[in-house]
Structure formats: structure tokens, C-alpha cells
Hints:
Chain A is mainly beta.
Amino acid sequence: QKEVEQNSGPLSVPEGAIASLNCTYSDRGSQSFFWYRQYSGKSPELIMSIYSNGDKEDGRFTAQLNKASQYVSLLIRDSQPSDSATYLCAVILNTGGFKTIFGAGTRLFVKA
Amino acid sequence: DTEVTQTPKHLVMGMTNKKSLKCEQHMGHRAMYWYKQKAKKPPELMFVYSYEKLSINESVPSRFSPECPNSSLLNLHLHALQPEDSALYLCASSQGHSDQPQHFGDGTRLSIL
């Protein structure tokens, strides 16, 4: 089992719809979770951090964490063509030092 | 604009060359990182420095040699690289490395001839 797993997509949604991105992780001891957006040819950009179970909202983005089920998700409301990018889930693993492990990323296409 | 600055943006080198990648941040962060990213793959952690000390080395070949001269600077010295080392090399920093998000530079795109 990979340490951090994401559906690679591509995920295609129409403009204005909700995009739902999911991520599961293997280390039950993990406490810190992040979503990054990466446009083609660019570096990753932090969108959200989440540390506690439940929902965290920031503008059109909502991160959801369920530690019991070991999953974290990202919802993008009112999706825009400019949201088309690869979304990377990242988890800090507390094994042999604190290492950030990225999922493979989900490619999102928002159709105008 | 990014608060983590990497130079050069592009580098082409032969397998016998020696070169260095540089990274600088002025956010007062105490952890700095090097990642390697191949096309359509996620970033892979190479090295972590915490308070200017190497805390994680992910079994990276010795042809890659990191250096942290001070809390704002991070270098990656390259020597005798192989064609498969061609990739985007990303530097990142964070306030701490146990639970804080990382801020990435724009990367150095490295090509080995």
C-alpha cells in the first residue's frame, strides 16, 4: 500500500460545479495534511492545511479530514477553468523523522 | 512572485561537470528542503535541513551533495550526474518540519547531456 494515495484522474467537471478530490494515507499517526495546486510547468502552491477532524473552509475551498478512516478530501465550489491543474495531497509522516510524502496528484479539468 | 528564490531557473550540464543549485528564503523559516520532480510525477523528498542541520537524507546518491551555509540559504552541489537525473529540482522552506506547510520556489529545470 502506498503511503499517500490519490486517484490520478483526470477529473473533468463543468464550470460552476463542485469538484471533489480524495486522498487516503497509511500512517495512523499522521497529524498534518496539506493540499497543493500545481499548474503545468510550475511549482506546487499551498491551498489548504488541515490538522483536526472535520471541515475547514477558505473561500471556494473546503478541506475535510477523517483520521479514523484515514482520508482527507478537498472540495472546490463554483469551479472555474483557472482551477484546472494537478492537486497534490501531502501528509507529514512521523516515521523515522517527519517526512512529507506527496500523493501522485489528481489532474482536474474544468470545462467552460 | 515566490518568497523562496531558486537559481538558476534552467541548467544544462554534461555528465562530467560540477555545478550548484542555490535557494534562498527570507521568511525566517528554520526548515529547508530539496525535492526532485520528474514529469507527471509528484515531488520526491531528497533532503531536509532543520536549524541548519541535515535531518533527513532519503538515500540520495552521493553525486548530490547538499549544503546549508546559514538559515536562509540552501545549496545542492552536483557532480558526475547521469541522464536520469534530469528533472525539476524544487527547494522549499517551512517554519518547522514536524507539522508546518512548505513554501516552494519556482524550481531549477536541470538537463543532463
